[in-house]
Amino acid sequence: MNKAGAFHNSCFMGTKRFRMTLLLSPIKKTLFIYLFILNLISNFGVYFYLNGWIPVFCMVMLAAWLAYMEVALFLLIRWKSLQFMWISFVVLLHNIFILLDYYLYFQFKTAFGQDAINVLAETNIVEAKNFFDTYLSFTNISLWLLFLLVSNVVIYKISSWVVHFNIGTIVSFSFVLLGWLIVTLFVYNFSVYRNGLDIPLYLTTTRVGYALYNMYHTTQNVVVLRDVCRKTKAVCSLKDQPTMVLVIGESHSVYHSSLYGYDKLTMPCMQKRVNDSTLFVFDNVVSTACGTHKAMLSIFSLDSLGNGFAETPLFPACFKAAGYKALMYDNQYFIGNSMLFLSDSKLSGLLFDERNTERYNHDMEMINTIHEVDYPALYIIHLWGQHYTYSERYPKSYSLFCSNDYDKSRWTEDQREIIAHYDNATYYVDKVLDEIIRHFEDKNCCLVYLSDHGEEIYELSNYIGHGSAEHSSDLKYQIRVPFLIWTSKSYSRPEIVERLSSLQHIPITTDDVSHLLIDLAGIQTPGFKPTRSVVNSRYNRNKRRMVLNSIDYDSYQPQ
Predict the structure, then answer these.
(1) Whether 543 contacts 555, CB under 8 Å
(2) Which of 33, 81, 123, 486 has its CA 20 to 30 A from that of 433?
(3) pLDDT tens readout for residues 352-410
């Protein structure tokens, strides 16, 4: 070989080595191993409920890919100050994700993702305070932060040791390449099918990004929904149109209601109304969700399980199209304070003639502001109910139960005190419901009460709350809900009243409530399905009740 050829080959090999060195340079940094480990720690928060080798494989490869990209960007930045800002942001973000993921897992058996972000978007100052009072303390926060600080120091020391001994460079680069392939697969599926498969779940960063995208998609759906509700057509077939009232409770457990066999008399007023045959108690009702956001979607929409939310009208639009006035009294959602459809000002204007703008410390204060009208009206009342913090959901004058009323061998003093607060809140809800009924006793009226979801209160473990039913050993505590129908003596449909007493054990899902309300009011509208109204002779009693997106409640077996 002549000198020119040798020189050419030398330059080619040198260029090849330079490119390989450049590609491997992020991996040879301590920072790569450090961020890779942080990614793994955060990503494994989701592994606790996504078992199998495929999630593990994807987590590891995606962690390597993301760490590589973070370090590569760090190396591309030429200014030291910007490098410091970038890496500080990345490390802080990973630590926040770790904190949120593991806290949510240990407290609620879930990971930081779509549901948690929806809750954050809809949380106001009052709810945030209630959450911190119930689940957090200064000591807990301090211990978590100290643990994170120590962990970061240890992880960095380990990373330095790995790089010093030049361990795993080629293996790490292989992981990065496989991570690229997984990301490519995700991008392809999403661009072609608008389906990211499960890939976004395996990386906290993509999980959060995907959730934010879905929130944006939800807001776009609301824009479409406005037009659907505006064009809704409906008529009422009854000459004497009844006043309709829907009361939506919050976190109401059937297992703490005396109407459903609880050994404490938590609902004496409703029991009296059962005894005088004006109140009907349904004992086989489940919510489709264990969180308020999804539960409210299913209650208001005529669609099934959220499959066509943007294309299907909300039931208040049907009532308005049929000549009803719609009034909303809500102690949780207000215009502009959340991502929920009820907070969209334009959609709200299409659905309701009146809405309250003030939040009340206790539900009875809101009930006392109800504006009764003489023309046909739909009243929707959304309560605070028994939402945590339980002790703040009722005035102290309603403190009927105390910690000494509960089994000391089963629960600690703190647990018994919390249970007592919950039962007192339920006792207060009973009084609130009774007061609502008093408002409409002299009218041609039908009232439906249900809770958005249930509540777990130390039945299975040292846990109170909701939002984690799919990871509970028995989801019924968070999914079963109370369901009551009250009719006034002058309710204009005696055939319905006669039928109600024979329907109280029929399986029902809250996803069908909108169809029931339309049927009870005698409204005819294209979106109405008689097979989804429990009082209709065509009701489908054999419908499989799907909850939490994919669980068949009627074949579900507790773990």
Answers:
(1) no
(2) 123
(3) 999 999 999 999 999 999 998 988 999 999 999 999 889 999 999 999 999 999 999 99
Tokens 């039962």 map to which residue? Answer: 423
Strands 243-249 and 445-451: parallel
Domain count, the chain: 2
- Do residues 127 and 272 both lie within one domain? no
305 and 264 belong to one structural domain: yes
Q: What is the pLDDT of residues 183-220, one digit of tens each?
A: 888 888 777 756 666 677 777 887 888 778 777 877 88
**Looking at this protein, which amino acid is placed at residue 241?**
Q
Q: What is the pTM of this model?
A: 0.76
Are 444 and 491 in contact, with CB atoms under 8 Å apart?
yes
Q: Are residues 266 and 193 in the same domain?
A: no
Structural domain boundaries, residue 454: 243-330+346-351+402-462+475-555
Task: Give the residue among 412, 498, 424 at the shortest CA–CA distance from 458.
Answer: 412
Q: Are residues 247 and 138 in the same domain?
A: no
DSSP E strand stretches across 176-278 = 235-236, 243-249
HEC secondary structure over 413-482: HHHHHHHHHHHHHHHHHHHHHHHHHHHHCCCCEEEEEEECCCCEECCCCCCEECCCHHHCCCCHHHHECC
Helix (H) or strand (E) holding 546: strand 546-547
Contact 158, 32 (CB under 8 A): no
What CATH number did the domain enclosing 488 receive? Answer: 3.40.720.10
Of residues 322, 28, 346, 59, the one with CA closest to residue 171: 28
